[in-house]
Design brief:
- It contains twelve helices and 18 strands.
- By secondary structure, the chain is α/β, with parallel strands linked by helices.
- It has two domains: 193 residues, Quinone Oxidoreductase, Chain A, domain 1; 144 residues, Rossmann fold (3-Layer(aba) Sandwich), CATH 3.40.50.720.
- The strands form three sheets. Strands 3, 5, 6, 9, 10, 17 and 18 form a seven-stranded mixed sheet that branches. Strands 13-12-11-14-15-16 form a six-stranded parallel sheet, sandwiched between helices.
- The longest helix is centred in the middle third of the chain and has 22 residues.
Length: 374
């Protein structure tokens, strides 16, 4: 079938993207689903820094690639072997398909699925197939989703069925921002009630971590960012204290305000500077969690003696250490109860044709979560 999709033909385009147009809106061919696959009509897709890091070349991916990984939609057609969904079901796409059989999956850690990671790196679906084509040439899939498009053929393992009462633009955010940000707090760090928390980097994922800290019952929630408007938004979502990272005394002031640092610090900006800040504001015996995705070659200097003498913990978190089929419905239920106000993160809605200019806003830190509506 013929569909319209946003295709990245080459990475590293110069900004502004509204001029260079790294994403080309093209008519491409999409195969109907094969065994274990599903055709989804995309209804909404969020713009995420993980998309941006592919566009600017920070995280290299094979091209040409049909972009987009945070989305919601409805089931249009089922491939052979898919019996637990029906046409019209509302679904959220998740960006690591889990095979269910490898060792990480068997241990309850589907975010680390080995076949899923291999497929994502190769730009294929979990089956190893590419279902997108242009003029007889294959187009790669972005994280098994390629959701900046009217339709997507994906692995059944990339989908979670959701309550049809959930609005599509809000549902889309649960596939990446919510799973990653809330999950980092509840699953990776296991923040306990009464704890002190700091979140460094207030994009969509970072603000979801603020929401997660509220749900976890943290008594002090410190928000850190370079933009005052994001700090103000964080306060409206439950942050008790805010600090601008551009202040040269930010670390000193924060440690004084928290009497020696926080028990849990989360780095969500994907930069070495942010990680160093998060580590320095973590208290003795505390835990520093990073879920940001910096350039692959970036490294951080950590005094090894501190890890021992202060019993520090440094942890990575991918997709919030979530089991999507378990956690995503739970987070949706919390939202529907008014305890996880994800809707407040939607900073704009747009058409597919406005995607390049929208990525300019994201790269400049002027947007939290923009959502393409189909």
């Amino acid at each position: 079938m013929k569909i319209k999709a946003a295709v990245l033909n080459k990475t590293g385009a110069e900004r502004p993207y509204a001029v260079s147009k790294p994403l080309s809106i093209e008519e491409v061919e999409l195969d109907l689903p094969g065994y274990g696959e599903v055709l989804v009509k995309i209804r909404a897709a969020g713009l995420c820094h993980s998309d941006l890091s592919t566009i600017n070349g920070v995280r290299p991916r094979p091209t040409p690639m049909a972009m987009g990984h945070e989305a919601s939609g409805t089931v249009e057609e089922l491939g052979p072997g898919v019996t637990d969904l029906k046409k019209g079901d509302h679904v959220v796409l998740t960006f690591v398909p889990s095979c269910g059989h490898c060792l990480p999956c068997a241990e309850g850690r589907p975010a680390l699925c080995e076949p899923g990671a291999a497929a994502n790196g190769a730009g294929t679906l979990l089956s190893g197939s590419r279902r997108l084509h242009r003029n007889g040439t294959d187009i790669h899939h972005h994280l098994g989703c390629s959701a900046f498009a009217e339709y997507a053929t994906v692995s059944r393992r990339s989908l979670v069925k959701v309550d049809p009462e959930l609005a599509f633009d809000e549902a889309a955010l649960f596939g990446c921002a919510v799973l990653t940000g809330v999950g980092a707090v509840l699953n990776t760090a296991k923040v306990s009630p009464g704890s002190t928390v700091a979140v460094v980097g207030l994009g969509g994922v970072g603000l979801c971590s603020i929401l997660g800290a509220v749900v976890a019952g943290a008594r002090k929630i410190v928000a850190v960012d370079l933009f005052d408007d994001k700090l103000e938004l964080a306060r409206s979502l439950g942050a008790t204290d805010t600090f601008n990272a551009s202040d040269p005394d930010c670390i000193t002031k924060l440690r004084e305000a928290t009497k020696g640092g926080v028990e849990y610090a989360f780095e969500l900006a994907g930069s070495v500077k942010a990680m160093e800040l998060a580590y320095k504001i973590t208290a003795r015996g505390g835990t520093t969690v990073t879920a940001g995705l910096p350039p692959a070659a970036d490294t951080i200097p950590i005094p090894q003696v501190n890890l021992v003498a202060e019993e520090r913990t440094v942890k990575g978190s991918y997709i919030g250490t979530c089991v999507p089929v378990r956690d995503l419905p739970r987070y949706v239920a919390l939202y529907q109860q008014g305890r996880l106000p994800v809707d407040k993160l939607v900073s704009g809605r747009l058409k597919l044709e406005g995607i390049n200019a929208a990525f300019d806003l994201l790269s400049e830190g002027k947007a939290v979560r923009q959502v393409i509506m189909f």
